Protein backbone atom coordinates (compact mmCIF):
# COMPACT_ATOMS: atom_id res chain seq x y z
CA UNK A 1 0.00 0.00 0.00
CA UNK A 2 3.03 2.22 0.48
CA UNK A 3 5.94 2.92 -1.83
CA UNK A 4 9.36 4.38 -1.25
CA UNK A 5 10.83 6.20 -4.23
CA UNK A 6 14.32 7.73 -4.63
CA UNK A 7 15.53 10.07 -7.38
CA UNK A 8 13.51 9.29 -10.49
CA UNK A 9 14.02 11.84 -13.26
CA UNK A 10 16.70 14.31 -14.44
CA UNK A 11 17.76 16.03 -11.21
CA UNK A 12 17.51 19.60 -12.42
CA UNK A 13 14.29 19.51 -14.40
CA UNK A 14 12.56 21.47 -11.65
CA UNK A 15 14.85 24.45 -11.94
CA UNK A 16 14.11 24.41 -15.66
CA UNK A 17 10.39 24.31 -15.01
CA UNK A 18 10.65 27.29 -12.70
CA UNK A 19 12.63 29.32 -15.19
CA UNK A 20 10.57 28.50 -18.25
CA UNK A 21 7.25 29.63 -16.83
CA UNK A 22 8.18 33.24 -17.60
CA UNK A 23 10.26 32.63 -20.70
CA UNK A 24 7.52 33.15 -23.27
CA UNK A 25 5.94 30.96 -25.94
CA UNK A 26 9.29 30.01 -27.50
CA UNK A 27 10.16 28.01 -24.37
CA UNK A 28 6.97 27.48 -22.34
CA UNK A 29 3.93 25.59 -23.55
CA UNK A 30 0.89 27.59 -24.68
CA UNK A 31 -2.63 26.54 -25.52
CA UNK A 32 -1.84 26.65 -29.23
CA UNK A 33 1.25 24.46 -28.99
CA UNK A 34 1.14 21.02 -30.53
CA UNK A 35 4.49 19.98 -29.04
CA UNK A 36 4.76 17.29 -26.37
CA UNK A 37 4.71 18.62 -22.83
CA UNK A 38 5.22 17.57 -19.22
CA UNK A 39 3.63 18.90 -16.02
CA UNK A 40 6.21 20.21 -13.58
CA UNK A 41 6.04 21.78 -10.12
CA UNK A 42 8.90 23.09 -8.00
CA UNK A 43 9.38 22.91 -4.23
CA UNK A 44 12.04 25.09 -2.64
CA UNK A 45 13.32 23.68 0.64
CA UNK A 46 16.82 25.10 1.15
CA UNK A 47 17.00 27.69 3.93
CA UNK A 48 19.06 30.81 3.93
CA UNK A 49 20.16 32.01 0.47
CA UNK A 50 18.15 33.97 -2.07
CA UNK A 51 19.04 33.29 -5.72
CA UNK A 52 18.52 34.48 -9.29
CA UNK A 53 17.77 31.92 -12.01
CA UNK A 54 19.27 32.07 -15.50
CA UNK A 55 18.37 29.94 -18.52
CA UNK A 56 20.74 29.87 -21.50
CA UNK A 57 22.42 33.00 -20.10
CA UNK A 58 19.23 35.05 -19.69
CA UNK A 59 18.01 36.20 -16.27
CA UNK A 60 14.52 34.85 -15.89
CA UNK A 61 13.74 34.93 -12.17
CA UNK A 62 15.15 36.75 -9.17
CA UNK A 63 15.05 36.97 -5.39
CA UNK A 64 13.65 33.52 -4.65
CA UNK A 65 13.10 32.40 -1.07
CA UNK A 66 12.51 29.02 0.61
CA UNK A 67 9.27 27.38 1.68
CA UNK A 68 7.31 27.66 -1.57
CA UNK A 69 5.64 25.10 -3.84
CA UNK A 70 4.75 26.26 -7.34
CA UNK A 71 1.54 25.19 -9.04
CA UNK A 72 1.91 22.62 -11.86
CA UNK A 73 2.82 24.09 -15.24
CA UNK A 74 2.72 22.51 -18.71
CA UNK A 75 6.13 22.89 -20.34
CA UNK A 76 7.54 21.91 -23.71
CA UNK A 77 9.60 18.75 -23.49
CA UNK A 78 13.26 19.53 -24.11
CA UNK A 79 16.73 20.16 -22.69
CA UNK A 80 17.90 23.48 -21.20
CA UNK A 81 21.00 24.87 -19.47
CA UNK A 82 20.15 26.37 -16.09
CA UNK A 83 22.40 28.47 -13.82
CA UNK A 84 21.57 29.67 -10.33
CA UNK A 85 23.46 32.57 -8.77
CA UNK A 86 23.34 34.25 -5.40
CA UNK A 87 20.90 37.12 -5.88
CA UNK A 88 22.58 40.03 -7.68
CA UNK A 89 25.80 38.16 -8.52
CA UNK A 90 25.08 36.61 -11.94
CA UNK A 91 25.85 36.09 -14.71
CA UNK A 92 29.47 37.23 -14.27
CA UNK A 93 29.86 35.50 -10.93
CA UNK A 94 30.34 31.82 -10.15
CA UNK A 95 27.01 29.94 -10.25
CA UNK A 96 25.90 28.24 -7.08
CA UNK A 97 24.44 25.50 -9.24
CA UNK A 98 24.73 24.78 -12.94
CA UNK A 99 23.03 21.92 -14.78
CA UNK A 100 21.76 20.82 -18.16
CA UNK A 101 18.16 19.81 -17.55
CA UNK A 102 15.44 17.96 -19.42
CA UNK A 103 11.67 18.19 -19.19
CA UNK A 104 10.41 14.70 -20.15
CA UNK A 105 7.32 14.22 -22.30
CA UNK A 106 4.23 13.21 -20.34
CA UNK A 107 5.84 13.66 -16.93
CA UNK A 108 3.95 14.83 -13.84
CA UNK A 109 6.68 15.63 -11.37
CA UNK A 110 7.76 17.92 -8.58
CA UNK A 111 11.37 18.99 -8.32
CA UNK A 112 12.65 19.67 -4.82
CA UNK A 113 15.60 21.96 -4.17
CA UNK A 114 16.65 20.87 -0.69
CA UNK A 115 19.41 19.76 1.67
CA UNK A 116 20.73 16.21 1.73
CA UNK A 117 20.80 14.30 5.01
CA UNK A 118 24.31 15.65 5.67
CA UNK A 119 23.40 19.23 4.78
CA UNK A 120 24.51 19.56 1.15
CA UNK A 121 22.26 21.35 -1.39
CA UNK A 122 20.79 19.13 -4.08
CA UNK A 123 17.91 18.76 -6.52
CA UNK A 124 15.66 15.71 -6.43
CA UNK A 125 12.85 14.91 -8.83
CA UNK A 126 9.80 13.09 -7.50
CA UNK A 127 7.14 11.56 -9.77
CA UNK A 128 3.63 12.52 -8.63
CA UNK A 129 1.13 9.65 -8.45
CA UNK A 130 -1.94 10.87 -10.32
CA UNK A 131 -3.75 7.51 -10.42
CA UNK A 132 -7.39 7.42 -9.32
CA UNK A 133 -8.50 6.72 -5.76
CA UNK A 134 -11.79 5.21 -4.56
CA UNK A 135 -14.74 7.36 -3.52
CA UNK A 136 -14.23 8.95 -0.12
CA UNK A 137 -10.46 8.46 -0.29
CA UNK A 138 -7.39 10.67 -0.66
CA UNK A 139 -3.71 10.00 -1.21
CA UNK A 140 -1.13 11.03 1.42
CA UNK A 141 2.50 11.30 0.33
CA UNK A 142 5.40 12.29 2.59
CA UNK A 143 8.81 13.35 1.27
CA UNK A 144 11.88 13.58 3.50
CA UNK A 145 14.02 16.41 2.10
CA UNK A 146 15.57 17.71 5.33
CA UNK A 147 19.10 17.67 6.70
CA UNK A 148 18.04 15.20 9.37
CA UNK A 149 18.13 11.47 10.20
CA UNK A 150 15.43 8.88 9.56
CA UNK A 151 11.95 9.82 10.78
CA UNK A 152 8.55 8.29 11.44
CA UNK A 153 5.40 10.05 10.27
CA UNK A 154 2.27 9.79 12.41
CA UNK A 155 -1.37 10.56 11.67
CA UNK A 156 -3.67 10.88 14.66
CA UNK A 157 -0.83 9.67 16.86
CA UNK A 158 -0.41 6.40 14.95
CA UNK A 159 2.65 5.69 12.75
CA UNK A 160 1.84 5.77 9.04
CA UNK A 161 5.38 5.68 7.64
CA UNK A 162 8.40 4.37 9.54
CA UNK A 163 12.10 4.94 9.01
CA UNK A 164 11.75 7.40 6.13
CA UNK A 165 15.14 8.73 4.99
CA UNK A 166 16.30 11.61 2.80
CA UNK A 167 15.65 11.87 -0.21
CA UNK A 168 12.84 9.32 -0.27
CA UNK A 169 9.06 9.38 -0.24
CA UNK A 170 6.26 7.10 0.92
CA UNK A 171 2.62 7.16 -0.13
CA UNK A 172 -0.66 5.55 0.88
CA UNK A 173 -4.41 5.98 0.34
CA UNK A 174 -6.45 7.04 3.38
CA UNK A 175 -9.96 8.24 4.21
CA UNK A 176 -10.62 11.83 3.17
CA UNK A 177 -10.92 14.32 6.03
CA UNK A 178 -8.80 16.27 8.49
CA UNK A 179 -5.77 14.45 9.86
CA UNK A 180 -3.47 15.64 12.65
CA UNK A 181 0.07 14.73 11.60
CA UNK A 182 3.51 15.04 13.10
CA UNK A 183 7.06 13.82 12.48
CA UNK A 184 9.12 12.02 15.11
CA UNK A 185 12.65 10.68 15.37
CA UNK A 186 12.53 7.16 13.94
CA UNK A 187 11.56 4.58 16.56
CA UNK A 188 10.73 7.18 19.22
CA UNK A 189 7.87 9.41 20.39
CA UNK A 190 10.09 12.50 20.25
CA UNK A 191 8.30 15.06 18.06
CA UNK A 192 10.60 16.83 15.62
CA UNK A 193 8.08 18.68 13.43
CA UNK A 194 4.44 19.52 14.02
CA UNK A 195 1.78 18.67 14.84
CA UNK A 196 -0.20 20.11 11.92
CA UNK A 197 -3.75 19.56 10.67
CA UNK A 198 -3.94 18.31 7.08
CA UNK A 199 -7.20 18.69 5.16
CA UNK A 200 -7.26 15.68 2.85
CA UNK A 201 -9.95 16.28 0.24
CA UNK A 202 -11.55 13.43 -1.66
CA UNK A 203 -9.69 12.67 -4.87
CA UNK A 204 -6.58 14.65 -3.95
CA UNK A 205 -2.89 13.84 -3.59
CA UNK A 206 -1.59 15.60 -0.49
CA UNK A 207 2.19 15.84 -0.55
CA UNK A 208 3.94 16.78 2.68
CA UNK A 209 7.59 17.88 2.66
CA UNK A 210 9.72 17.64 5.79
CA UNK A 211 12.44 20.18 5.00
CA UNK A 212 15.06 22.44 6.53
CA UNK A 213 18.00 21.72 8.82
CA UNK A 214 18.06 19.94 12.16
CA UNK A 215 21.32 21.63 13.07
CA UNK A 216 19.89 25.09 12.42
CA UNK A 217 16.60 24.29 14.21
CA UNK A 218 14.51 25.40 11.23
CA UNK A 219 12.81 22.14 10.34
CA UNK A 220 9.29 22.64 8.98
CA UNK A 221 6.49 21.07 6.98
CA UNK A 222 5.26 22.35 3.62
CA UNK A 223 2.33 20.93 1.70
CA UNK A 224 1.46 20.54 -1.97
CA UNK A 225 -2.02 19.45 -3.08
CA UNK A 226 -2.84 17.95 -6.47
CA UNK A 227 -6.48 17.29 -7.44
CA UNK A 228 -8.30 15.27 -10.05
CA UNK A 229 -7.79 11.74 -8.73
CA UNK A 230 -11.52 11.11 -8.17
CA UNK A 231 -12.64 7.71 -9.45
CA UNK A 232 -15.87 9.14 -10.95
CA UNK A 233 -15.58 9.61 -14.73
CA UNK A 234 -17.57 12.85 -14.39
CA UNK A 235 -15.27 14.38 -11.79
CA UNK A 236 -13.74 17.75 -12.63
CA UNK A 237 -9.97 17.98 -12.33
CA UNK A 238 -9.26 20.33 -9.45
CA UNK A 239 -5.72 21.18 -10.49
CA UNK A 240 -2.97 21.82 -7.98
CA UNK A 241 -2.10 24.33 -5.33
CA UNK A 242 1.24 25.84 -4.54
CA UNK A 243 0.38 26.93 -1.01
CA UNK A 244 3.12 26.01 1.43
CA UNK A 245 1.97 25.44 5.00
CA UNK A 246 5.05 25.93 7.18
CA UNK A 247 5.07 24.29 10.59
CA UNK A 248 8.23 25.09 12.59
CA UNK A 249 9.98 22.61 14.84
CA UNK A 250 8.29 22.59 18.25
CA UNK A 251 10.90 20.54 20.07
CA UNK A 252 14.58 20.85 21.06
CA UNK A 253 15.14 17.19 20.19
CA UNK A 254 16.77 18.09 16.87
CA UNK A 255 19.28 20.36 18.60
CA UNK A 256 20.30 17.57 20.94
CA UNK A 257 20.63 15.16 18.02
CA UNK A 258 22.75 17.63 16.04
CA UNK A 259 25.09 18.15 18.99
CA UNK A 260 25.70 14.40 19.22
CA UNK A 261 26.24 13.79 15.52
CA UNK A 262 28.10 17.00 14.73
CA UNK A 263 25.97 17.63 11.67
CA UNK A 264 27.16 20.65 9.69
CA UNK A 265 24.55 22.26 7.47
CA UNK A 266 25.66 23.92 4.26
CA UNK A 267 23.46 26.71 3.00
CA UNK A 268 22.54 25.98 -0.60
CA UNK A 269 20.64 27.06 -3.64
CA UNK A 270 17.02 28.10 -3.31
CA UNK A 271 14.48 27.91 -6.05
CA UNK A 272 10.92 29.11 -5.55
CA UNK A 273 8.26 30.86 -7.58
CA UNK A 274 4.49 30.79 -7.86
CA UNK A 275 3.59 29.96 -11.46
CA UNK A 276 0.36 29.88 -13.40
CA UNK A 277 -2.47 27.52 -12.48
CA UNK A 278 -2.50 23.96 -13.73
CA UNK A 279 -5.09 23.52 -16.44
CA UNK A 280 -7.89 21.17 -15.43
From TrEMBL:
Higher taxonomy: Bacteria, Bacillati, Actinomycetota, Actinomycetes, Kitasatosporales
Keywords noted in UniProt: Signal
Keyword DNA repair: no
Protein's name in the database: DUF4397 domain-containing protein
Source species: Streptomyces chilikensis
Signal peptide positions on this chain: 1-28
Superkingdom classification of source: Bacteria
Record domain DUF4397: where: 39-154
Amino acid sequence: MTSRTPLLLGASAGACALALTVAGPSMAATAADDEATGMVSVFHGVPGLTVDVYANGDRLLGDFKPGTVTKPQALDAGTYEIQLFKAGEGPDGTPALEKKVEVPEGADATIAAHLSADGKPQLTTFVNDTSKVDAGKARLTVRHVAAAPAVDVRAGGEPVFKGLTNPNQESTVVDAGTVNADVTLAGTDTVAIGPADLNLKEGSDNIVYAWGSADDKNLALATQTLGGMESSPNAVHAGGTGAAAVTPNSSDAWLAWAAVTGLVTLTGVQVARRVSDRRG
